[in-house]
Amino acid sequence: MSTVRMGLISKKPEWSNDEFYKHWLGHHGPLVKNAPGLSQYWQNHIVDRIQRGIDFEREPWEFDGFSQLWISDPNKPFGEGELPQRIIEDENHFLGRLHILTVKQTTVVEVPEDASRAKLKKRISLIRRRPELSEQDFLNEWKVHADFVRTMPGVKGYRQNAVVQRELQKGTPCSYDDLPIDGVVEFWFESTESLQKAFESEVGVKTMEHAKTFLAGITAFLVEEHRII
After folding, report:
1. Residue-wise pLDDT tens digits, 114-156
2. 2-227: CATH topology
3. What average pLDDT does the segment 53-63 reach?
4. Is 76 helix (H, G, I), strand (E, B) or coil?
5. pTM to 2 decimals?
């Protein structure tokens, strides 16, 4: 199980999508890459926001991308010296909003090596538990849910990221009510068609029925992932 720092990112409204993704990938990525102790850094650029196979209405989460950083020091994720300030200055330059989730990551279906992974599609989903469930109840049911997903056809990779800390404003922990996200799902598959068929299969239908017993919301984003480190 890994601890990962995730950024929920929205561009400034005056930036076009092309300008935003070009700057994030070509300038901000190489800047963050200099952080000491960073073992992996991925950017997930949003491609579409279609709820394929999901029997939930979208919640009002609107983002343009998700970052994932495997850090060594959660208290000083970007080290010391001038680098943290340079990163903040650049974030202020091109980001409209930035929320931070610290997550405990569990791999349910092993993700392929990078060469094979690059040929796959990826979906990230933000999930919220039913209000009558405690956090532990949610985690217990999510573990059961993993067994359903594991048997679905066409699943090429599946990770569960349980949220352990939230920052509505970067650097300041916030309450659950301020950022009510319980988990982040990462799902790899060959095509959007194979994804749809997976959820239309017998086990896929059972999987979604189980989701309704412990989730109040699922909001999905098809993404294009880029490895920086």
Report:
1. 999 999 999 999 999 999 999 999 999 999 999 999 999 999 9
2. Alpha-Beta Plaits (3.30.70)
3. 97
4. coil
5. 0.97
> Helix (H, G, I), strand (E, B), or coil: what is residue 214?
helix
Buried residues in 196-229 as b, exposed as e (16+ CB within 10 A): bbbbebeebeebbebbeebbbbbbbbbbebbebe
- 47/45 Cα distance (integer angstroms): 6
Give the 3-state secondary structure of residue 81: coil
In this structure, of 22-31, 39-48, 68-77, 176-185, the range with the lowest mean pLDDT score is 68-77
Average per-residue pLDDT in the chain?
97
Q: Can you tell me the distance from the alpha carbon of 159 to that of 4, in angstroms, rounded to the nearest whole number?
A: 12
Say what the pLDDT of residue 158 is: 99
Task: State the amino acid at position 11 in one-letter form.
Answer: K
**Residues near 102 by beta carbon (within 8 Å), at least 6 away in sequence:** 3, 4, 5, 6, 74, 163, 164, 165, 166
Angle at 161 between CA 67 and CA 213, to 5 degrees: 130
Q: Where are the beta strands (DSSP E) in the chain?
A: 2-11, 40-48, 65-70, 95-109, 121-129, 157-167, 183-189, 215-227
Q: Which helix (H) or strand (E) holds 66?
A: strand 65-70
pLDDT of 1 over the 80 cut: no
Domains in the chain: boundaries: 2-227
Residue pair 102/5 in contact (Cβ under 8 Å)? The answer is yes
In one-letter notation, the amino acid at residue 33 is K
